[in-house]
Write a structure and sequence with these properties.
Rossmann fold, 36% helix, globular
Length: 110
């Protein structure tokens, strides 16, 4: 599975690469760096905003990552921008595996 992580925190991007080591993972700091990337799943930090989610949704299925429980308004805005799901940070291996099973893979590198 090819996954893109869009998060301004370099430590969190490295954590995602480690947790997702059985997959092809690309990381960028901002949605402006997504360019022509294509793949299966995009994990986007809420700090990228609705425009960031919208840009990323044109490249693959988007899951919004939030450091806190999002409000209903934030969830509606993310869905309207193209997100298919959301998850609370930090993601652990079990959380990532569950998302991958639901949105495009077995969660075990397949």
């Amino acid at each position: 599975m090819r996954i893109l992580v869009v998060d301004s925190d370099p430590l969190y991007r490295r954590l995602c690469q480690r947790v997702l080591q059985n997959h092809e993972v690309d990381t960028v700091a901002t949605y402006r760096q997504v360019g022509a990337w294509t793949g299966d799943l995009i994990l986007v930090d809420t700090r990228q905003g609705g425009k960031g989610v919208g840009v990323c949704a044109k490249r693959g299925r988007v899951i919004v990552l939030s450091a806190k429980q999002p409000s209903v308004a934030e969830l509606v805005a993310a869905r309207n921008a193209g997100a298919v799901d959301y998850a609370i940070k930090p993601l652990n291996e079990a959380g990532i595996a569950a998302l991958l099973r639901q949105w495009g893979g077995s969660g075990n590198g397949a």
